[in-house]
Amino acid sequence: MIRFDSDTYQAEYAGQSIRLLPKEFALLRYLYEHSGRSFSRDELLDAVWPLEAPGDRTVDDHIYRVRKKLIPWSHLLRLETIRGQGYKLMRLAPKTQSNPLLQDEQFVADASRMLAKYHGLGMGAAMRLLSANRDVLGLPGDPFYDAYIRFVSGDFAWLLETDELSRPQQAVYASFIHASIQFDAHASLRYFDKLIARGNELTRAWLNDLKLNAAYLALAAGFPQQARERLNEIRAEIADMDSPSFTALFLLKEALVSMEESHSEATAAKLTECDTLLERHPIRRERGAYLVAKGLYLYEQGAPARARQSIEEGMETTRQTQFIPHLLNSLQLIIRCLEAHPYDDACLQNYRRQWDAMAAQYRFAELLPKARRLLDNRL
What we know:
mainly alpha, 19 helices, transcription regulation
């Protein structure tokens, strides 16, 4: 899987990188995320130059330059000209050589444990690095993590369009994508509840993840009592999982419900309990979420400077993990809270701008109808 670095405008694969200009980068990424599909020049202009009025040869010139830069990866990608239609990018299966490491059962088990450890510690950047260099390192494939790393990386289009996932697995990913890219908590909650009702098709972890996030969606939809009831229903199940990550997220959702109910002492107690847990289990992804929740609590306590500092630290921690869905969820939480409670308009506008930038980067306007169609068809 090719990795796209939006900060440096580089595409990376197996330790090699291709440096691109900004519009070359956007064009290649768009074609890669929609590989196998033909696009006319007008469609590419709308996708890559939506607010500009480029010249007639803009697409052709950029295709020419991207094609030249892809020559070192001719075994991976082929940028085709479709006569009378436009252009299409094809992903080619890389030629693989026999890897003796894959015959070593201990190595395969160790590689799986390493991925699971990075996952458990919320180290999305490490997971993405391993995935991008899997061929070089001789690492085995893992169907779950192959899909999950795409989710972590924000490759939402692939998850919604692929036929490589089971129907229940794809529906779960679609529900999380739907909830992450728009603010209609009622609509997302309906999809979550339909999936939860079909829990016998899901793993225990998937089902508990859905139930935990459904509790937050109930809160976001304006039903704090229902959110608390949902949390109470899964309290024993979360404890039985003995997962620091699930426990931390459960505590944070309890804190958010208490905050909405104006139970200041209960909120502080849950935040303290979560902080103590994360001191023992340093999960950076959950640490970022904790700092954001703490910042929102500090706003409620009348300490705006400390609140801004905590939220900024939480967002930066989450960015460093490179878990894109979690970054989106934190942005949503901040915006929802600051819209409901006018603590800090400057901060609100700042995070709205960040949301708009991510909406453009990850093409929410294209993803949302795809997620809806998939969920409506499957559920």
